[in-house]
Design goal:
With about 475 residues, the protein is of the alpha/beta class. About 35% of the residues lie in helices and about 15% in strands. Helix 2 runs antiparallel to helix 7, helix 4 runs antiparallel to helix 5 and helix 4 crosses helix 7.
């Protein structure tokens, strides 16, 4: 008998780097049914699945993969949705390589099962071919909940509470729901239509969305509870306040925060020029400061907006870069130039007040700092100038202070994050819960969703007086 053919991890077909670097269409095409079933057949269906331990929302990973292997994609999607209300999003942007896949036992000898790609496949199949099923909804409880912010944390809370029979209204500052999924992560990584489909699904369950509503300005948390009759409030307002380098020249024209740069491009659709005439610098030499996912998104966006040179400037080395390996790899393939162990010290302007160069120093790595990463030190006498016409600062975000500033009972940490119980999201104000980036500081989609789920359970108990 011929030996059984060994099945290797199935590659994800994707656009050619040179082609995709100049368009905004999604980079990977996704698995076909056949490839998905082949990849799913690599799963050993472990009795004690390690992969599940790595998933912050405890998706029943072997169960959904088993259904894909059998060709029952509808059942796979149902199992996924049971724990994860945004599987098409998570299948695209979750750091699977450091969560579920890193724990997969297949990965000990060969490449782990492609759990994220299979998640994406099942979710896409349901959206495109399967038809979305409406879950059972509990009888109305007569209780009203206000959710502040329509990012992954807020959307998860809204979905969970509406299913438990409560009336849910989501207030969102921007004109579109989705949070970072819509204004931050670019179309080529997460098509907006997918986020919109998830929001439409929540609307179909009865969630009410009120856009262009900055809580803390139009209504305070107090007014929501005391005058508008909300029995509980969830704060999921994220971490949308950009950090800056605090170096000379950051106020020059042509210098953006990554938030502004990506929002103009994604949410205000600058990438659809001339259909949308949103002003944005279409720089020829763009430097992006930082080494995380946000920096990669900005650098790849700059290429697509027509830059001749899009550069990442990061003070540590490749190994310490916080971006997902897939993101930095995609950026490199597309031609983004990496200036590693390099730190800007000053931005230099021309006579019109527009940035024209960046003074930088070279760095070397010393002992680990408090975060455990090796601390960068300046190499004396290493200063040099980099010619640039656009600079995007992507060195992290802090929570927006508006809600705590207008609600004295909600206490914050020294970093401005809202203090909330890790297990329940309960804040220092009665009836008010919080979760996601506003509590943890800038983190991940799945952690925001996990926090949303815990808070929804706690709010449900609170409303039922348990
Ligand atoms: C460019 C970029 C790329 C990223 N890439 C990844 C990735 O690949 N994988 C990953 O897992 N994570 C990624 N992240 C992080 C991830 O997106 C966040 O951790 C996640 O979105 C946090 O969810 P959230 O619901 O807490 O907040 P957000 O997504 O920030 O949503 C908060 C919402 O609240 C609204 N809001 C704020 N204040 C108010 C107010 N006062 N009233 C009403 N509404 C308000 C905001 O407008 C926003 O829509 C990325 C982040 C960025 C910026
Ligand atoms: S650990 Fe890997 S092989 Fe085992 S159930 Fe999870 S995905 Fe399948």
């Amino acid at each position: 008998m011929a030996p059984k053919e060994k099945i290797l991890r199935q590659p994800m077909p994707e656009q050619e780097p040179k082609v995709r670097a100049r368009n905004f269409e999604e980079v990977p095409f996704g698995y076909s049914k056949e490839t998905a079933m082949k990849e799913a057949s690599r799963c050993l269906q472990c009795k004690k699945p390690k992969c599940r331990e790595g998933c912050p929302v405890e998706v029943l990973i072997p169960d959904f993969i088993g259904k894909i292997a059998e060709g029952d994609f509808a059942a796979a999607a149902r199992i996924l949705k049971d724990k994860n209300s945004l599987p098409a999003v998570c299948g695209r942007v979750c750091p699977q390589e450091s969560q579920c896949e890193v724990k997969c036992v297949v990965g000990k000898k060969e490449e782990p099962v492609a759990i994220g790609r299979l998640e994406r496949f099942a979710a896409d199949w349901e959206r495109n071919e399967g038809g979305v099923t409406i879950p059972p909804i509990a009888a109305k409880t007569g209780k009203k909940v206000a959710v502040i912010g329509a990012g992954p944390a807020g959307l998860t809370v809204a979905g969970d509470l509406i299913k438990k029979g409560h009336e849910v209204t989501v207030f969102e500052a921007l004109h579109k729901p989705g949070g970072v999924l819509i204004y931050g992560i670019p179309e080529f990584r997460l098509p907006k239509a997918i986020v919109q489909a998830e929001v439409d699904y929540l609307s179909s369950l009865g969630v009410r969305f009120v856009m262009n509503s900055v809580i803390g300005k139009i209504r305070s948390v107090h007014e929501l509870m005391e005058e508008d009759g909300y029995d509980a409030v969830f704060v999921g307002s994220g971490a949308g306040l950009p950090n800056f380098m605090k170096i000379p020249g950051e106020n020059l024209n042509g210098v953006y925060s990554a938030n502004e740069y990506l929002t103009r491009n994604n949410l205000m659709k600058a990438y659809l020029f001339p259909g949308h005439d949103t002003p944005i610098a279409r720089g020829k030499r763009v430097a992006v400061l930082g080494g995380g996912n946000v920096a990669m998104d900005a650098a790849r966006t700059a290429l697509r907006l027509g830059a001749d040179a899009s550069m990442i400037v990061y003070r540590r080395s490749h190994d310490e870069m916080p971006a997902r390996a897939e993101e930095s790899h995609h950026a490199e393939e597309e031609g983004v130039i990496f200036h590693l162990l390099t730190n800007p010290v000053e931005l230099v302007g021309d006579e019109d007040g527009k940035v024209r160069a960046m003074k930088c120093v070279k760095m070397r790595l010393g002992e680990p700092d408090a975060s455990g990463r090796r601390k960068p030190e300046v190499i004396p006498g290493s200063e040099f100038e980099l010619e640039v016409d656009t600079v995007v600062v992507a060195i992290g975000n802090s929570p927006n202070p508006l809600i705590p500033a207008t609600t004295s009972e909600i206490h914050t940490s020294k970093w401005g994050t809202i203090i909330a119980d890790e297990a329940t999201g309960k804040t220092t104000m009665e009836g008010v819960y919080a979760g996601g980036d506003v509590v943890t500081g800038a983190a991940t989609v799945i952690l925001a969703m996990g926090a949303g789920r815990k808070a929804a359970d706690a709010i449900d108990k609170y409303l039922k007086g348990a």
